[in-house]
Design a protein that fits this description.
The protein is an alpha/beta fold and 299 residues long. The protein has 10 helices and 16 strands. It folds into 2 domains: 158 residues, Medium-chain alcohol dehydrogenases, catalytic domain (Quinone Oxidoreductase, Chain A, domain 1), CATH 3.90.180; 114 residues, Rossmann fold (3-Layer(aba) Sandwich), CATH 3.40.50.
Amino acid sequence: MKTAIATPRGIELAALEELSPAAGEVLLEVRAAAVNPIDAMIQAGIPRELGWVEADAPIGLGADVAGVVLGLGDGVASERPELAVGARVAGFRGDFVSPRGTFAHRVVLPAASLAAIPEDLGFTAAATIPLNASTAAQAIALAGSPSGTLLVTGAAGAVGGLAVTLARRAGWRVAALARPSDVGFLEEAGADIIVTEPGKARFDAVLDAAALGDAAVDAVVDGGRYVGLIPPALPASDRVTTAALTAVPDSSELAGHLELAADGVLAPRVFAEWPLERAAEAVSAVAAGGVRGRYVLVP
């Protein structure tokens, strides 16, 4: 069995040691793991530059996962009966720089970061939902009470596309910033306004999924709110309230998102399925940009 790790030398497939879940943890057989921009950032060495890990420490790749429960740590069976051995589950790891990631044949995660996959949702589709939908939903919450228009930058991306749908459901009037070629997708996602070129218009809040930074802050009305995603630096502004987040796993929130995906409300977007052995290639492809949807690794 193998696991993909990022080292100062590049991405390597390493032997996976025997795993055993501790109290509150779940051992999974990985069936699908989506490749996200955070993996490209890890490959680029950003966590090392920021001092989040030692310079020579290996970092496990992969945050999202869908798989089958193989074993349970103490307390899980009684507190989370839906996570029984054999159950189909999905989730994401909240510690993005630990030595063990989800690009592996097996992984151990906290039960609190997992939820059962509905019957109508496959492993590959389910693996694209956890981190992206949680990031979108938690960013929308930071934008405050829905009143007026929320601009979503990078609206055709994996996070941005889900943010358009979730913000609309939360009560926002949603403006989506994306390329002209993405207009059809954004109309289906529920965007009220589609912006193909940044202009002089200002909005009550901005969810900056594209990490435009200062340019996105400029699009916020005086007294409005800007929400960005970490690790990009948070723009400074005396004119608007700024905030940024890294998504935190929440099993109840995740369960709701998986149900919405199974019902067709949230659209899982799979660009390609590749074997685990192509992890380095997939991460490099994400770093190059321009992909609509996610590469999904299937061990």
